[in-house]
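Good morning C.,

I know you're traveling, so I'll keep this short. The sequence:
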Amino acid sequence: MENKLLDMVNQIGLYCQAEQLKLSVAESVTSGYLQFLLSQGDGASDYYQGGITLYNDSQKEQLFGISSSLTSSNNGVSPQVSDLLAKVSNSHFNSDIAIGITGFAHKDKEFDVEEPFCYISIALGDKIIYRVQVETNMNLMPKNQKYFGHQCIAGLLKTLQTLKQTA
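The tokens, ready to paste straight into the viewer:
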């Protein structure tokens, strides 16, 4: 893992430990990459509760109760779905803050996706405190997944720094 990314993960960990926050993740498009990244932080077992990969709509419904009415028309890719992934992750993992991410890591003609993109949501308890759509034009799915994962880490760190300033 590159040093800058590991530094960000460690800063997230220091903040979570100082504020006694537990962290979790529910991911789709990044398919476990965020779970790997967050587990690499110093003292991760003190604050990182874990995560889950819900790669298809069936699992989103079965494990997180996300209705097929929210996923069938868009393959589970919407701001509402990323919000629910974050909120329900907090509930399932007994965490305080969670990332939810869903998207398309490649072009998809069936869903009119011309460029890969994702939605990232961060929930503090059951309140969404950060949401962003991230786009890329890279042609390789693994590069897109890594890019989206890096954007999650950067967004989480930025959100935690904002929380610290307003506290």
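Safe travels,
E.
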